[in-house]
Amino acid sequence: MGQPLSLKTFVKAVCVVIISLAHQTLSANSVFELQQQLHHPVPGGVAVVPIMAIGETGSAPQAFLGDHRVLVMADDKSWWAIVGVPLTTEPGSIDLNVSTPDSRRTIAVKIEPYEYKSQHITLKDRAMVSPPPKTLERIKSELAEQIAAYGTFSENEPSNLIFDPPISGRLSSPFGLQRFFNGQPRNPHSGLDFAAPKGTPVQSPADGRVLLIGDYYFNGLTIFIDHGQGVISMFCHLSQINLLPGDIVRRGEVVGRVGNTGRSTGPHLHWNVSLNNARVNPALFLRR
């Protein structure tokens, strides 16, 4: 028969159990909160999907949408995938591929139809509508650089997915608008626009690392922040950037200031959020 536990050892063991249970409860509440707020499985939306019971694998499963890794998190019962749905996705279903060291499965995720509004914008600078041939190479190179940044997947889990607004300005253009510049159709609006005076501080919605900084033809002064596991924030049309590539930022830290650079009709912030290289509606992430 073993020796009886000392009071000190017993108290320590109870504390470990309490901390463990508290962690599980917080995790469960966190995933529940994310499902309630983020789950909007439409083109340009987010699908929060249970993919596997905790006991089915000894390690975290990996999930892929096409070639892109998907954010995976756990509560006390299940592993969940937080899937960004590309704007170009047709209603119906998409295949989420899930793998562990000893198993593979495909989960069909239902995508509902959703119709976004249109927006017509008049630009005085015609070169911002139809750039001259000598500018097209620059635009092509800049686009490749930004697409590579969006495709980044780092293993660290995001510090939070319920965001505060990056600024307190008025929302001037929502996500998903089919945009027409001087009557010519262009890609749908991939983020949120906030109208605010030039110089207004822009804050990071979560902890992260500065991934890329650039001064681009369309986006102007731009900063990309990697929040972890394929969650990327992009802020553009800035007048000033306070950081350098590789810098670590904390939630609420000022990363730049509102401007009117690039293709812009007035001072404002364009902010977008990317999940698994899909631009999704940032409004889904804003604290309610």
Q: What is the global morphology?
A: globular
Q: Please identify the oligomeric state.
A: single chain
**Low-confidence runs of at least 5 consecutive residues:** 1-29
Number of domains: 2
Measured by DSSP, the beta-strand proportion falls in: 35-45%
Alpha carbon gap, first and last residue: 57 Å
CATH architecture of the largest domain: Distorted Sandwich
Helix proportion range? 10-25%
Structural class category = alpha+beta
Q: Can you write the helix and strand succession as a string?
A: HEEEEEEEHEEEEEEEEEEEE
CATH C-level label of the largest domain: Mainly Beta
Average pLDDT reading = 85
The number of helices is 2
User: How many strands, what sense, and barrel or not for the largest sheet?
Assistant: 10 strands, antiparallel
CATH topology of the largest domain: Glucose Permease (Domain IIA)
Write the CATH homologous superfamily of the largest domain: Glucose Permease (Domain IIA)
Number of strands: 19
**How big is the Rg?**
22 Å
Task: Chart the SSEs and their pairings.
Elements: H1 7-38, E1 46-53, E2 62-65, E3 68-74, E4 78-84, E5 92-100, E6 103-111, E7 118-121, H2 133-150, E8 170-173, E9 178-181, E10 184-185, E11 192-195, E12 201-203, E13 208-216, E14 220-228, E15 231-241, E16 248-249, E17 254-258, E18 268-275, E19 278-280
Parallel strand pairs: 7-9
Antiparallel strand pairs: 1-4, 2-3, 2-5, 3-4, 5-6, 8-11, 9-10, 11-18, 12-17, 13-14, 13-16, 14-15, 15-17, 15-18, 18-19
